[in-house]
Amino acid sequence: MNIARTIRTWRRVRETRHGLSRLPNRFLADLGITRADIPAVARRLAR
Questions:
Q1: What is the pTM of this model?
Q2: Ranges of H-type helices in 1-47
Q3: Average pLDDT estimate for 2-12
């Protein structure tokens, strides 16, 4: 596996997770996700 690609992916996951975590619960509900879903959603979106 390419180390540079792994680092870029890790950064995108982290940034996505951070961004989603900053949203209020009502916005997350509008998106159809809960706080418990954030890590999985971030991994899926970062691909």
A1: 0.83
A2: 3-21, 25-31, 38-46
A3: 94
Q: Where are the domains of the chain?
A: 3-46
| Paired tokens of 12 | 């995108």
Long-range own/partner contacts, residues 16-19 (CB < 8 A, 24 or more apart): 16/41, 16/42, 16/45, 16/46, 17/42
Query: What is the token pair recorded at 25?
Result: 């619960």
The rounded distance, in Å, linking the Cα atoms of 17 and 45 is: 10
The two structure tokens encoding residue 1: 């596996």
- What is the Cα–Cα distance from 35 to 11, expressed in whole angstroms? 19
> For residue 1, is pLDDT > 80?
no
Percent of the chain with pLDDT over 90: 91
